[in-house]
Each structure stands twice: as C-alpha cells, then as structure tokens.
Amino acid sequence: MNDKDNIAVVAGRLVSELVEAGKTLACAESCTGGWIAKALTDIAGSSSCFGYGIVSYSDDAKQSLLGVRSATLQEHGAVSKAVVLEMVQGVLSLSGADLAVAVTGIAGPGGGSEKKPVGTIWFAWSSRDEESVIQQASMERLEGSRDAIRARTVILALDGIRERLKEVG
Predict the structure, then answer these.
(1) Domain containing 48 — which CATH number?
(2) How far apart are CA 89 and CA 87, in angstroms?
(3) Which of 7, 30, 74, 114 is the most buried (most CB within 10 A)?
(4) Edge-to-edge, what's the strand order for the sheet holding 133-141?
(5) What is the extent of the structural domain holding 33?
(6) Are the C-beta atoms of 79 and 53 separated by less than 8 Å?
(7) What is the DSSP letter of 18?
(8) What secondary structure does DSSP assign to 136-152, as a single string?
(9) Tens of pLDDT, residue by residue, the chain (169 residues)
(10) Count of structural domains, the chain
C-alpha cells in the first residue's frame, strides 16, 4: 500500500475512533499545506469530529492566526519545537477541540541547512480534559521527495492523534 492509500486508511480509522469517543480534533499545518485537514474531510461524517484546520505556511500566518510569538520565531526559527508547541496551543485554544495536532517542517527540495536539513519535521499534539492540557512534541527526519515527506508527515500526525486518543479515551 502506498502512502496516499495509507493516509485514507489511517484518516478513516481516526474519524471513526473520534466519533465513537465523542471527541473533536483541530489541526494547524505548515509544511503539509492543509493535507491533514483534507485527509480528514475526505471521510464522510468527519464534520462531527473535525471543525478547524488552519494552514499557517508563513511566519506572519503563524503569528496572526495561531498566536505564535515573534520572539519565538526569531529565537528558534519556524521549524522548531518551540514554534510547533505554540502552534498546537493556538489551534487548541481557538477551536475548543479536545485534541489538536500541529506540524512544521522542511519538505524540500530546497530550504534545508546543516542544522535543519530537508526532511526535518516537528510535530506537536495536545489533548485536554476538564482539568488539564497535555502537550507533546517530537521531531522526525524523513527522507524522499517533497511529496513523500509530506505524505509521511500526514500519516505520522494522524497516527499521533490516534495514540493520544487512546490515552485520553
């Protein structure tokens, strides 16, 4: 099964699991350009669990739409743990969702550096209950074409939400 077929399978499972659990999801995307939201909304019935997808490709969009601080961008760069955590917090706050995911990275073919090569992707997931908000972030170094890196990013983001959903029930 190729990555694009796998995206549809993972998104379908996630939507079913979210609906069954009565939970809602929001996403903030940079390098995937709305692909996470598309994968979810390709699934019939997703409107009962998915209401917010924000594409914040530019630094200005990250700041104005998600509340990412200018100082964070200047100090760490757009592809960083600090920025992706502010992105996920921003979309969680805006949406009121139970769970959120954010991604930012360098899909290539250009734009990489020695410190942050092409394929550097930061993920953040957030979940909330009545008492607290839990945030987690991780970085992956993915290989392949721009399309392959972006597709793999979507799969990892969706799988990450499925893992968190199991934790919060």
Answers:
(1) 3.90.950.20
(2) 5
(3) 30
(4) 50-55, 25-29, 99-105, 120-128, 133-141
(5) 3-168
(6) no
(7) H
(8) EEEEEE--S-HHHHHHH
(9) 788 899 999 999 999 999 999 999 999 999 999 999 999 999 999 999 999 999 999 999 999 999 999 999 999 999 999 999 999 999 999 999 999 999 999 999 999 999 999 999 999 999 998 788 999 999 999 999 999 999 999 999 999 999 999 988 6
(10) 1
